[in-house]
Amino acid sequence: MGTTGNALHEYTKKCGEVKDDLLRAMAKLLELDDDDYFVEHFGDKPLTDVRCSYYPVCPRPELVFGLKPHCDATVVTVLLVDDRVGGLQVLKDGVWWDVPIVPHTLLVIIGDQTEIMSNGIFKSPVHRVLTNTKKERLSVAVDYYVDPEREIEPSAQLVNEKRPALYSKVKVKDYFARSYNAFTEGKMVIDTVKI
User: Fold this and answer.
1) 137 near 66, Cβ under 8 Å?
2) What are the boundaries of each domain within the chain?
3) Where is each Fe2OG dioxygenase domain found (predicted)?
4) What beta strand segments (E) does 19-121 contain?
5) What is the model's pTM?
6) What is the C-alpha R_g of the chain?
7) What is the pLDDT of residues 124-162, one digit of tens each?
């Protein structure tokens, strides 16, 4: 492995530690019996991918998205965003909000798989990336997914009479297939497993 390969390996390793620590904290917040509830769901063959995105200067940003509105089909995404130019926005209550630039930080986006396993307590936000008329933008996303052969569903500890299961059980690889189709059609894949 060359210098670049070693650096990428070390970066993804550190992101994995951030991901595991965050998921353990989330399990504690939910008062689950096992702090490793989310971490253990990854299984023996979890998937991790790294996306390096380059958004060039765009003279007509009102006509071109850097990335159209979507939710991540992940457990979580650890994102290193450009600390010079914004563009990431999150949808809340029908309004698009700019995600502030905080230099030298990582941004964590909760994914659909966590929303399902938390029975909707943790939400997978709809987000998009805008292009910029004056500056190019870079980002590095590390996506973490449960083993595609495993099934996910709301934790039994988070389902009761007051809060019934909001999502059906789904095999992760089937969810991936739905995710691709939903993204191309401009729909949210999480809606396909809502009860």
Assistant:
1) yes
2) 3-193
3) 46-146
4) 47-55, 65-70, 76-81, 88-92, 95-98, 106-110
5) 0.91
6) 17
7) 999 999 999 999 999 999 999 999 999 999 999 999 999
